[in-house]
Write a structure and sequence with these properties.
Blueprint (H helix, E strand, L loop, with lengths): L11 H5 L10 E5 L7 E6 L2 E6 L4 E6 L15 H21 L5
Length: 103
């Protein structure tokens, strides 16, 4: 089986060079699991948004105030969630368009 193809930007320079800060743009993550348990997430500092696709559940965390992600702010901060949600959905759509077909 050929190795998996990954897209994105290496974070090694940020990890190695302590003078550099975290990426300025959003960082995207995906976790694909069976039975509608797929999740995608995005960190746009200081916020992290998580979309549990199978049940269409959204989570929002302020990582600066809640690094352990204990308090889901999705309902309380809908105005903050809305643009983050749109960005995450657009990213996921782009990723799905780029996937090779499995014919």
């Amino acid at each position: 089986m050929p190795p998996a193809r990954l897209s994105g930007r290496s974070l090694v320079p940020i990890i190695v060079d302590t003078k550099d800060r975290a990426p300025r743009g959003p960082v995207f993550m995906a976790k694909y699991r069976p039975r509608n348990r797929q999740k995608v997430a995005m960190v746009q500092w200081p916020h992290k948004v998580v979309w549990n696709i199978g049940v269409n559940r959204w989570e929002l965390y302020n990582l600066a105030q809640d690094p352990g992600e204990k308090r889901n702010l999705a309902r309380a901060q809908r105005a903050t969630l809305a643009p983050l949600r749109n960005t995450l959905k657009a990213w996921r759509s782009l990723v799905l368009q780029r996937r090779p077909s499995r014919d």
